[in-house]
């Protein structure tokens, strides 16, 4: 598993499964706006950032994510690993 997949997997593991099922649209993909659809809140986002940094040995770079346009799964992964697709 490459680094971006490891990060993606860790982020997804921290989103409550019941909330993902409640979306009813087949789950979460790279363009899913995590905050806007209610999968996470700002506190959970901070928990995810800290946990991914600890477990995956990467640094979160807030310059690689635009909080104004929405926090998507893809953008969040890229904020840890800008080289990921």
Order of helices and strands: HHHH
Q: Work out the radius of gyration.
A: 12 Å
Number of helices: 4
CATH fold category name: Non-ribosomal Peptide Synthetase Peptidyl Carrier Protein, Chain A
The rounded distance between the terminal residues' Cα atoms is 14 Å
Low-confidence residue ranges? none
CATH class: Mainly Alpha
Strand content range: under 5%
Helix content: 40-55%
Mean pLDDT: 88
Q: What is the second-level CATH architecture?
A: Orthogonal Bundle
- Oligomer state of the chains in this structure: single chain
In short:
With 85 residues, the protein is mostly helical.
Map the helices and strands:
Elements: H1 3-13, H2 17-23, H3 42-56, H4 73-80
Helix pairs in contact: 1-3, 1-4
Q: What attributes does this structure have?
A:
4 helices, Non-ribosomal Peptide Synthetase Peptidyl Carrier Protein, Chain A, 85 residues
Verbal overview:
The protein is mostly helical and 85 residues long. It has one domain (3-80): Non-ribosomal Peptide Synthetase Peptidyl Carrier Protein, Chain A (Orthogonal Bundle). The protein has four helices and no strands. The longest helix has 15 residues, at 42-56. It starts with a helix and ends in a 5-residue tail after the last helix. 19% of the residues are buried.
């Amino acid at each position: 598993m490459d680094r971006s997949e490891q990060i993606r997997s860790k982020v997804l593991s921290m989103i409550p499964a019941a909330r993902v099922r409640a979306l009813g649209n087949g789950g979460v993909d790279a363009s899913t706006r995590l905050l806007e659809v209610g999968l996470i809140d700002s506190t959970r986002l901070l928990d995810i950032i800290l946990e991914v940094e600890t477990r995956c040995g990467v640094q979160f770079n807030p310059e690689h994510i635009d909080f104004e346009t929405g926090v998507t799964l893809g953008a969040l992964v890229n904020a840890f690993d800008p080289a990921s697709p």
